[in-house]
Each structure stands twice: as structure tokens, then as C-alpha cells.
């Protein structure tokens, strides 16, 4: 289980404010996904998986999901200290931010493919029309990069989440250090 699992919920079910909110189908599906991974990893036996997945699918509020997951998903330090607050506040937008970063990567790869295609084909058409179609090689490389980004969405998003969490932790440590001085 990744440390960013709690951030994948729209509202962190561990927080007092979110605990009383009604659980959505997406929240229940996420809990079932985590339980399925734990079962596949051998951390739950079949009976416990059945009991917990039944409890997760019948959960009414977010707080009902916490006991099913808390011993399977590591707690992460809250991701940031929001200005004007006296304590740590969880950043539930971490997953959304990582997805936006992946979408930006995909746009950049598509722009790169289009740019390389236009430039190399223009050079080829001006200098050696009808000759060996060498622009296919850089176009193919750019297309493979775009395909890789598209096919590895989940891995790339998780990588961005880890990077964002690490950056937030460093910022928190710096604030603590600055506040202590």
C-alpha cells in the first residue's frame, strides 16, 4: 500500500470533519481496492478479507472505512501546514495535483510529437523530397514516449504523489526549523 492512499479519498476519512460525511461509491471502491491488494499480498486471510470488504461496501459514513484500512495503510504526516492554522492540515488535493502533473506530461509529449513531426517533415520536404523518409525515426521516438506516458498513467501519478509528498515534508521541516529559531 502506498503512503498516499489516504490522500486518494476525496476527504480524508481520518479527519474529524470528514468522518461524519457520507461515503461515496468511489470511497468504497478505493477501500475495496486496498483490501484486495492486502489480500493479494497475504496480509489478510480470506475470512478477514470477506468481513472487511463487506463492512467497506456497506459503510454509510467515511469513519466506517477507517477501521477496515488503518492497520493496512501507513499513516503519513499531514502534508502541509496551512497558513493561519495552529496545526497540521491534511492535503487531500495531493492525488489531484499528481493527476494534473501527469496530464501536463501527456500534453507536453503530444506537443513534442507534433513539433518534431512538423519540423523534421519540413526539413525533409525542403532538402530531400522523395528521398529516404528519415523523419520517421524521431517521430517514432516521440510517439513511443507519448504512448509510454499514456500507458503508465498510474505509475507516473504515484511517482508524482511521492515527489509532492517529499517536497511538502521538506517544506514542513523548514517551517518547523524556522519557527524554532
Describe the structure in your own words:
With 181 residues, the protein is mainly α. It is built from eight helices and no strands. The chain has helices spanning 5-8, 16-19, 25-40, 46-57, 66-69, 94-128, 136-151, 153-180. α3 runs antiparallel to α4 and α6 (94-128) packs across α8. It is elongated. The model is unreliable at 77-90 (pLDDT under 50).
Topology, please?
Elements (H helix, E strand, L loop, with lengths): L4 H4 L7 H4 L5 H16 L5 H12 L8 H4 L24 H35 L7 H16 L1 H28 L1
Helix pairs in contact: 3-4, 6-7, 6-8
Characteristics:
181 residues; mainly alpha; elongated
Rg, alpha carbons: 23 Å
Question: What is the number of E strands?
Answer: 0
* N→C terminal distance: 37 Å
**Which percent range describes the beta-strand content?**
under 5%
The gross shape turns out to be elongated
In DSSP terms, counting alpha (H) and pi (I) runs of 4 or more, how many helices?
A: 8
Please give the largest β-sheet. Answer: none
Helical percent range? 55-70%
Q: What structural class do helix, strand and pairing data support?
A: mainly alpha
Output the helix-strand order: HHHHHHHH
Average pLDDT, to the nearest integer? 83
Unreliable parts: 77-90
Amino acid at each position: 500500500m502506498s503512503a498516499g492512499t489516504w490522500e486518494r479519498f476525496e476527504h480524508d476519512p481520518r479527519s474529524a470533519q470528514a468522518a461524519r460525511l457520507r461515503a461515496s461509491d468511489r470511497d468504497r471502491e478505493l477501500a475495496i481496492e486496498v483490501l484486495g491488494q492486502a489480500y493479494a499480498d497475504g496480509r489478510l486471510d480470506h475470512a478477514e478479507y470477506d468481513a472487511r470488504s463487506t463492512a467497506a461496501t456497506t459503510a454509510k459514513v467515511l469513519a466506517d472505512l477507517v477501521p477496515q484500512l488503518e492497520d493496512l495503510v501507513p499513516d503519513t504526516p499531514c502534508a502541509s501546514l496551512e497558513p493561519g492554522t495552529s496545526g497540521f492540515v491534511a492535503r487531500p488535493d495531493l492525488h489531484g495535483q499528481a493527476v494534473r502533473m501527469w496530464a501536463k506530461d501527456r500534453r507536453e509529449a503530444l506537443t513534442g510529437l507534433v513539433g518534431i513531426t512538423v519540423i523534421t517533415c519540413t526539413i525533409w520536404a525542403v532538402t530531400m523530397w522523395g528521398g529516404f523518409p528519415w523523419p520517421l525515426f524521431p517521430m517514432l521516438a516521440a510517439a513511443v514516449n507519448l504512448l509510454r506516458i499514456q500507458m503508465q498513467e498510474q505509475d507516473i501519478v504515484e511517482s508524482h504523489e511521492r515527489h509532492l509528498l517529499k517536497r511538502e515534508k521538506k517544506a514542513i521541516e523548514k517551517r518547523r526549523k524556522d519557527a524554532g529559531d
